[in-house]
Amino acid sequence: MKRKMLFTLAVLALISFSCKKKNSTDTPSASPDYIKLKVGNYWVYEIFKVDTNGVETDQGIADSNYIEKDTLINGNEYFIKNVHFYPSKAARVPLRDSSGYLLQHNPDGTNFIIFARDNFSDLLFTDTNAVFIRTYRMTGKDSIVSLPAGTFTTRSFLIGYYPVASGYPWGDRRNYYMYGLDAGLVKQIYFYYASDPDHYEARLIRYHVK
Are 157 and 114 in contact (CB under 8 A)? Predict the structure, then answer.
């Protein structure tokens, strides 16, 4: 009888342990957040111009970007982000997170992928204008980037620009949008004028996210 009781207790203990283990492993963990779409979040960047020899010139500008409000578009929640990166003009951009894809809503009603957290294999988009063939993809998975605001683990959205005309003097060009884990966009590398061989860099100096 005593032996039966001990065996029963051992079985019950094993079942209890198995249930606890299953429950702990079945609890889903939060997805990593690189884009931080919350009203009130903001980012401040210092802007440098970099020539073809790598010489940097501080533009003496601190550009601010922030999430102004949320809104509904076609039944989906978007966040209006005020964006400004010198020398471009400021813009109010509707954004939303769709299962790790950062979508930008366009005036024509379409959505445009400008970041894909986990998709490093697909070509996300391609188009052609009078000067370039443009391709959009992810790169730089979990790269470490050090900036005045701190050191970040990043994933980057890359736009490649490939000249349509063979006589274009500056060759292939790249724009990088580097998103830090739990921080949002921490660094941007971009050119503005197709005729200018230099590029700009926006580097995060301070931010607030929740």
Answer: yes
Q: Could you please report the per-residue DSSP string of 100-126?
A: TEEEEE-TTS-EEEEEESS--SS--EE
The residue type found at 209 is: V
Distances (CA, A) of 24 to 14, 15, 17, 28: 15, 14, 11, 9
- The per-residue pLDDT for 30 is 77
Rounded distance, CA 173 to CA 161, Å? 5
- For position 22, what pLDDT does the model report? 40
Q: Beta strands of 41-149 (E only): which ranges?
A: 42-50, 56-73, 76-83, 91-98, 101-105, 111-116, 125-128, 132-147
Q: Is residue 15 part of a domain?
A: no
Residue 41: per-residue pLDDT: 98
- Write down the pLDDT at residue 166: 86
Query: What is the total count of domains within the chain?
Result: 1
3 state DSSP class of 33: coil
Ramachandran class of 80: left when φ > 0, alpha when ψ lies in -120 to 50, beta otherwise: beta
- Write out the residue range of the structural domain in which residue 111 sits: 42-208
Smallest CA-to-CA distance from 200 within 209, 187, 210 is with 187
